[in-house]
């Protein structure tokens, strides 16, 4: 039986000296999923990724990749593509030579199975045979992605992969990652580009102050059938909306109401408000990931 | 990993400059002494073999040590300096393979350093002073015997250099920057060379590898005394230093 969970974090905790970087981090990424790992700076995203690939030893908990315990230089890492803490190469060697050395370091025969596809994605052209020290930041970033992808990995762990890429390159990367996920790869990707994650990810893990504050499908996180109403009488609007079949919750946030009503259209809800004599100033049918993320982090920080 | 380390390190401008400087020193010395060929400038100018032996004496211990400490510290610390260490670990490369590969590259560098120097000295000496028997105060040594002595001396010097090379390599692996490893290695080398001249500190000096480095000179006196002890001290130094480096590395969090 094939285990569909490709990346699993079970209660991971890690401290650096007195500073606790992550505490009790648990989540899972299945094959075919693209999971966005989100959080403000210092939330523990990179530490979590480091622990997952064995670059950091957890104080508690365990990380598993493709069903195997992950630790430094674990054999399973040969099936994992990693881009973490930014690009790093031997500066006086060419891009191609760097890829070759990295591949051979894993005691494997050159060339790797997906070399051509990853070089095409990197789009370095003839520059791939020039010394890396002459590369721009964007070129190094693309070479790093080629390095992570050249082995046709079953799991990809990518830390801020779109840094330094132009919009066209970001779109090409997005399409490439989607194809890999459709082929059964599991992808964990951290990024501050929330709009990009919203376009790409199927699932999300949101972290704040070292802990996971929510995890699940992007659809659930953004709330399908979720609406925001600006109304002139929040109390009466709340009463009216709760009378409508299918409305699960009505939460006031300032002068706005966040309504969860799967299966109900905005027109139906608006109709109910107008009938109740409530003035509707504005309505949005779906929250952006940015709004959800900032709201979650703000509430979590306040609660802590 | 050995091939990867050698490919990475031997293509660096810094490494090539060091090897070039070694050969350059020999050629420069030969050119400046050319007018004294035939022994008019001292024993070194009698023949290519005398010139080579004198060259080894001039370079050992501090100048050879300087070259090897530089190479050792950059081999040990380069992956950390470039940031490529994390990408080696996730290929995956174990710590044991990493350390073994780097140490293997250090062995090759020690041998290469001495080989380049001896090769350049023999060639320069042959062109400038000619191919004659090895001249010494107790009677000349045949060219064939002297060549054997030079090769043995080269092997011994290489083994000696491996001790300071291993120290620099270990420090390069453990310290945040290779420049720090180089500084400490050089301080150890120069400090050892100074202490070696202080007779009252013999008990301390006797455990320092540098104390035994010049014992190869006895190979040209028909002896060879103390070579085995010298090799034993170098070996012990290498084992202690590399074992300590591995032990620290294995306990340390890779991301630290």
Outline of the structure:
The complex is a heterodimer of chains A (304) and B (256). Chain A has helices at residues 45-52, 95-105, 115-122, 137-149, 167-182, 194-200, 218-222, 234-242, 266-275, 289-303, and strands at 5-16, 19-30, 34-38, 60-65, 68-69, 80-83, 155-159, 186-190, 203-208, 211-217, 226-231, 249-253, 256-260, 280-284.
Helix-strand makeup class of chain A: alpha/beta
What is the largest interface, and how many residues per chain? A-B, 33 and 27 residues
Strand content of chain B: under 5%
The termini of chain A sit apart by: 42 Å
Gyration radius of chain B (Cα, Å) is: 20 Å
Secondary structure: helix percent of chain B: over 70%
- Runs of chain A with pLDDT <50, length 5+? none
Tally of contiguous helical segments of chain A:
10
Number of DSSP helical runs of chain B: 10
Give the helices and strands of chain A as they follow along the chain.
EEEHEEEHHHEHEHEEHEHEEHEH
Question: How many strands, what sense, and barrel or not for the largest sheet of chain B?
Answer: none
Largest sheet of chain A: 6 strands, mixed
Poorly predicted ranges of chain B: none
Strand order of the largest sheet of chain A: 6-7-8-3-9-10
Number of extended strands of chain B: 0
Distance between the termini of chain B: 23 Å
Helix and strand run of chain B: HHHHHHHHHH
Question: Which percent bin holds the helix content of chain A?
Answer: 25-40%
Mean pLDDT of chain B: 89
Which class do the helix and strand fractions of chain B yield?
mainly alpha
């Amino acid at each position: 039986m094939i285990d569909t969970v490709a990346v699993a974090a079970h209660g991971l905790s890690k401290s650096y000296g007195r500073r606790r970087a992550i505490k009790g981090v648990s989540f899972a990424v299945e094959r075919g999923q693209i999971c966005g790992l989100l959080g403000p700076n210092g939330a523990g995203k990179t530490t979590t990724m480091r622990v997952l690939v064995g670059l950091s030893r957890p104080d508690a908990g365990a990380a598993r990749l493709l069903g195997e315990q992950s630790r430094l230089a674990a054999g399973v890492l040969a099936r994992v593509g990693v881009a973490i803490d930014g690009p790093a190469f031997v500066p006086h060697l060419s891009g191609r030579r760097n890829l070759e050395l990295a591949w051979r370091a894993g005691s494997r025969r050159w060339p790797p199975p997906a070399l051509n596809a990853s070089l095409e994605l990197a789009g370095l052209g003839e520059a791939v045979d020039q010394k890396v020290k002459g590369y721009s930041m964007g070129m190094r970033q693309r070479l790093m992605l080629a390095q992570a992808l050249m082995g046709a990995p079953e799991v990809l762990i990518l830390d801020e992969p779109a840094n330094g890429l132009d919009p066209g390159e970001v779109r090409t990367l997005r399409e490439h990652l989607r194809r890999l996920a459709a082929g059964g790869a599991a992808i964990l990707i951290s990024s501050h580009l929330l709009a990009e994650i919203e376009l790409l990810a199927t699932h999300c893990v949101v972290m704040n102050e070292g802990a996971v504050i929510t995890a699940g499908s992007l659809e659930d996180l953004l709330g399908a059938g979720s609406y925001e109403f600006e109304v002139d009488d929040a109390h009466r609007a709340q009463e009216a909306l709760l009378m409508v079949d299918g409305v699960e919750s009505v939460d006031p946030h300032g002068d706005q109401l966040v309504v969860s009503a799967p299966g109900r259209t905005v027109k139906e809800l608006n109709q109910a408000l107008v009938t109740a004599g409530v003035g509707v100033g504005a309505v949005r049918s779906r929250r952006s990931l940015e709004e959800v993320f900032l709201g979650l982090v703000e509430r979590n920080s306040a609660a802590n | 990993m050995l091939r990867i380390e050698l490919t990475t390190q031997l293509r660096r401008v810094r490494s090539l400059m060091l090897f070039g400087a070694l050969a350059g020193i020999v050629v420069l010395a030969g050119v400046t002494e050319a007018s004294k060929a035939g022994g008019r400038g001292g024993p070194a100018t009698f023949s290519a073999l005398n010139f080579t032996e004198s060259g080894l004496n001039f370079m050992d211990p501090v100048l050879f040590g300087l070259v090897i400490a530089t190479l050792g510290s950059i081999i040990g610390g380069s992956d950390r300096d470039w940031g490529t260490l994390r990408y080696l670990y996730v290929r995956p490369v174990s710590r044991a393979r990493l350390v073994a590969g780097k140490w293997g590259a250090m062995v090759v560098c020690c041998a290469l350093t001495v080989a380049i120097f001896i090769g350049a000295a023999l060639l320069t000496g042959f062109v400038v002073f000619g191919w004659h028997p090895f001249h010494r105060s107790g009677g000349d040594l045949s060219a064939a015997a002297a060549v054997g002595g030079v090769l043995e001396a080269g092997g011994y010097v290489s083994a000696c250099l491996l001790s300071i090379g291993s120290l620099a390599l270990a420090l390069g692996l453990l310290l945040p920057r290779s420049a720090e490893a180089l500084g400490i290695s050089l301080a150890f080398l120069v400090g050892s060379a100074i202490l070696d001249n202080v007779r009252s500190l013999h008990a301390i000096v006797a455990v320092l590898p540098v104390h035994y480095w010049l014992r190869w000179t006895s190979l040209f006196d028909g002896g060879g005394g103390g070579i085995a002890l010298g090799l034993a001290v170098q070996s012990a130094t290498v084992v202690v230093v590399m074992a300590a480096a591995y032990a620290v590395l294995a306990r340390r969090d890779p991301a630290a």
